[in-house]
Amino acid sequence: MENLHPLMTRYRTKLKQASELWLEGFREACCLHRVAIYCLRSKQLMIRTGQCFLLNGFIFLGSIFILRSLILPTLEWILPLGVPDGYQEPCLSEMPIRLYAFLRLGLLQLIYALWFYPLYIFSFILSTIWYNDIAQFGLTVTEKDGPTNVAPSTQKEPSTSQNATPVDKPTDLGRVMIGIAEQGYSLLLLTLFFLEVYLTGFVPYIGKALNFILLSWMYAYYCFEYKWNFSGLSLDKRLDFFESNWAFFAGFGSPCVLAIFFFSPLVSYGVMAVLFPMFVLTAAGTDADSVVDAHKTKWRGEELRKLPIFYAADKLLMRILSLLPVEPQEHTSDKKAL
């Protein structure tokens, strides 16, 4: 028992550190007053944020509200679910009931095919473009207020300096190609991670809890990725910083997930599409490096261990890429010689 006491004390200390960082991340994500401040300081940001709210909040969520409160009750009234009152021949009534159910299902699928699915695709494409603009305008506002760190202070590259702006990105062709390759790899990595998040939802007993935690990390990464992209931070440094401060980012992503966790997929998308630009703006104004460093100073060097969040997705992606045919370098140089 005496040997277990130091171990239990250490675990309690680590749990306390993780809890403090989680609460700091949660608190930073809830600083939504920054959105109003930034929108008041940038007309372009206000317009883009308003357009995003109009499309996803008013049109998309409004369409779902109309479907559930008006269209579905009307279909159930015209094509009833059960036997009408006073009907004396239940055997003969089975045929119209089945016909009504078939027509109701067909009309509902037609509404989804002609209305909701095209609207969903249109909203997804347009929102993706607008999110990038919102992040850029938001970072411009934060730079006017004063520089904020977008990466760990240990990073010494010029691209991660405090005064970095989108126009400071390198124009050298080689570095541009590396940046494109990193963006492609990041997209594939997050796609596989999303698949991992989806599959954990089917795990018995603990699936929902795992799904919540992984979703929190995924949304937190999405929110900060815009900031890291415009600062020119390389992918390996992003992943290292994220996995080294996993508790903070789990807390930051939790409000995003809480807002959508208990809704249906379509409603969850609409709610997240409205709230996501707000969390992107709060991430733009969050100095994660300073928050984490303040706690590390208080802990006197006893830091939380790095958690390999993207390990499974990264290994699977590397395995898939290794199966792709690659032309040997010697063969390529022989062709050039000819």
TrEMBL record:
It is a multi-pass membrane protein. The chain crosses the membrane at residues 53-79, 99-122, 176-199, 245-263. Keywords: Membrane, Transmembrane, Transmembrane helix. Pfam families: EI24. InterPro entries: CysZ/EI24. Residues 150-165 have a biased composition (Polar residues). One of its GO terms (biological process) is macroautophagy. One of its GO terms (cellular component) is endoplasmic reticulum. The keyword Hydrolase does not apply. It is found in: Membrane. Its main location: membrane. Residues 148-168 are annotated as: Disordered. It comes from the Eukaryota. PANTHER family: ETOPOSIDE-INDUCED PROTEIN 2.4 HOMOLOG, P53 INDUCED PROTEIN. This is Etoposide-induced 2.4.
